[in-house]
Design a protein that fits this description.
Length: 96
């Protein structure tokens, strides 16, 4: 990871773009990479293990970008997958 690494924002759809907009206002010089999983939305109707698997897949897919931070902009994913994602991040050397 370098100071030029992006901040990754993930969501189950497009609602997290409001998070990106707010981040751009506060952090105008940061590269922000947004991933909206519109193919599998809504997450709210999925089980905890399924949502956790989705989030882990997304983070794995974006790992090559060496993000300095990963922001989960999806309430369902935060509630159901955060503990597992923190463990995954630590084991992969990503920021937790």
């Amino acid at each position: 990871m370098s100071r030029y690494s992006p901040i990754v924002v993930i969501d189950s759809g497009l609602g997290g773009l409001t998070v990106v907009r707010a981040m751009r206002e506060v952090l105008p010089d940061e590269d922000i990479l947004y991933f909206g999983d519109t193919a599998r939305l809504p997450y709210g109707s999925k089980t905890g293990p399924t949502v956790t698997a989705f989030v882990q897949q997304i983070i794995g897919y974006l790992r090559h970008t060496e993000p300095k931070h990963v922001v989960i902009a999806c309430n369902t994913a935060s509630a159901l997958a955060l503990t597992a994602v923190r463990s995954l991040s630590r084991s992969c050397g990503l920021p937790a």
